[in-house]
From TrEMBL, chains A, B:
Lineage: Bacteria, Pseudomonadati, Bacteroidota, Sphingobacteriia, Sphingobacteriales
Classification via PROSITE patterns: HTH_LACI_2
A Pfam family matched in the record: LacI
SMART domains: HTH_LACI
Protein name (Swiss-Prot/TrEMBL): Transcriptional regulator, LacI family
Organism of derivation: Olivibacter domesticus
Transmembrane segments: none
Keywords: DNA-binding, Transcription, Transcription regulation
DNA sequence: CTGTTAGCGCCTTCAA
DNA sequence: TTGAAGGCGCTAACAG
């Protein structure tokens, strides 16, 4: 009933009239301890319901067996899928995950990073807020010896560890799909221009059109800040063009959702007057009466798993090689392919 | 560059030729320390980039300033909303949140609880897996001095701390709404019979019909195990009845999604041949061309906030009153109202 | 106002 | 194969 009666190694030692070091060693299966003593210790530990005090171990080992994961938002399906895999991986290594939502606010993001730093996490996985521009924390963390792995939204900075998805393949497939369905006026709602992910998408978009001998029409490329209003404004701009496009690739499925709503309000019919393809392959599509023609799967689960794997490699190196051979793995980037998934239209 | 050079309180003491306790006190703004020394200490700490070693503090204080949150799934909008608020609340108290997804698997749930226990979290907020039947861990945690607050899915056990939502009000409103739109054959897709939440809903359903002088038709109450298949089977059973109901209340929005898909496959038209109302007020409805007529808002954010508040009250009591006055607050239940939200049909 | 001392629970040399 | 002793970084009596 009383919480203070948690048995310790000392208690066991006293009862068994042996030293604490012997108990410690027995509990950790140290080879130099006699089988009998080991058994006796373990038996009593069992009876007493002994559990090692992790906080003491953390302290002693200078490790917390905890990793931090910072994401813009848990409610986006992409991120909840990613974190599930991260959690799985971490648990399999007997690590715990602590969580932070930046809500795409750079200040909040920084605050979370600092909290995690003071909590001495052993490593961090981060999908940056969309409009973070300052990345000084990277050096701070490096100095603190905390490895960090980026994924999804990765800053354009040399020598960082990251998992990124190849946005190009998906875009090219999207355009080919549109073209093969007879579309020639294809537009693109891109995200904020400063994001590497936006640049990559835009390059691929242009490439895709060129591949299909479609001239580039600058009016067909619009931008959104990813807010609901921004998304609506973007699609409205396209819809109001004299030569309204018949097909739209958009930055991601959330943009598409808002765009579809706006389009309907204008009296147009989705999948008849105008067609969509976007990134993320949002699971809700299967419940929509008029989903996009296709969606580009970005494999959040795999990204999460790979990111975890990379992070644990870095953590292990940190522990073993106390030297600088950690630089060996520093600045690694893994690229995952994206691929188009057709919806059942 | 080297991680081992983290300055400690000792280092500061040595440089300033004062004792470590003075440094410690100065850093913690202890009133009995001279202003000058305090300033000198703080200045040097700043210069040295000193940061307290939390693991040492955790160890010393026998607290981790960490709470555990266990949820069936992060991808459900209800839970991601709840956890956002929990996180906010915890952060405002300088606590960190560690996270676990049970995926509605009782074994996994138990494993997470144990991990959190060995990690010595200061408290736990738990929305139980739908089919957990063993609650022995409640006593285990109590013995370990770890308070626990349930929310959303709360076991039917006396003397537990919980936040629950009043499912009755919402159900009565739902039925009144249906009736006032002319519906007389109203059916109900309930969740697993063993859940308290199912019993409460069913009681209210019957009450609602009675209030409106509608006779109870047992065929109009069906059950699902909440799997996609179960959801489909349930609605199909209703749709195949000779006197097919024109209105359906369902356990939650996810059930409704599957039901709508199944109904459409049968050639029926939602919001014309058959109408829906369900629990949860899933944010995606605003993007659907045919959302349910209404949805019962369960205020996940508020539930999360209240749960956090209750948990921190328990934690504080644990710390201050080392005696049993914790029983004073033991077994508290807070009920939040649910209310119907009409969709823009 | 400040220093001394002791100890949280565990692990790990070093010595026997 | 075992014990004794020391220390991780910090806080908190108890003394001055």
């Amino acid at each position: 009933m009383n919480k203070s009666k948690q048995p310790t190694i000392k208690e066991i030692a006293k009862r068994l009239k042996i030293s604490t070091s012997t108990v410690s060693r027995a509990l950790n299966n140290h080879p130099s301890i006699g089988l009998v003593t080991t058994m006796r210790v373990k038996k009593l530990a069992e009876e007493l319901n002994y559990e090692p005090n992790r906080t003491a171990i953390f302290f002693k080992q200078r490790k917390t067996f905890t990793i931090g994961v910072i994401l813009p938002s848990l409610s986006e399906a992409f991120f909840s899928a990613a974190i599930s895999e991260i959690e799985n991986y971490a648990n399999s290594k007997n690590y715990t995950v602590i969580l932070g939502q930046s809500l795409d606010d750079p200040e909040r993001e920084l605050k979370i990073i600092n909290t995690m730093k003071t909590h001495r996490v052993d490593g961090i996985i981060l999908s940056s807020a969309k409009n973070t521009r300052e990345f000084d924390y990277i050096d701070v963390l490096k100095n603190a010896g905390i490895p960090i792995v980026f994924f999804d939204c990765v800053p354009d900075i040399p020598n960082i560890n990251a998992i990124v998805s190849n946005l190009k393949t998906g875009m090219l497939q999207a355009i080919d799909t549109f073209v093969s369905c007879g579309h020639q006026s294809i537009a693109f709602i891109n995200g904020p221009g400063h994001l590497p992910a936006s640049k990559e998408r835009e390059g691929a978009f242009i490439k895709g059109l060129t591949n299909n001998n479609i001239p580039i029409n600058r009016d067909y490329i619009v931008y959104t800040d990813l807010s609901e209003q921004g998304n609506e404004d973007a699609i409205i701009k396209l819809v109001n063009l004299i030569d309204r496009p018949s097909a739209v690739v958009s930055f991601n499925d959330y943009v598409t959702l808002d765009a579809m709503n706006a389009v309907r309000k204008k009296g147009l019919i989705v999948n008849q007057d105008i067609y969509f393809i976007s990134y993320a392959n949002y699971p809700i599509w299967k419940y929509m009466e008029n989903p996009p023609m296709a969606s580009i799967e970005q494999l959040p689960g795999e990204q999460g798993a790979k990111a975890s794997q990379m992070l644990f490699d870095l953590i292990d190196i940190n522990v073993e090689g106390d030297s600088d051979d950690k630089s060996a793995i520093q600045g690694q980037k893994i690229v995952l392919e994206s691929k188009l998934v057709n919806q059942h239209l």
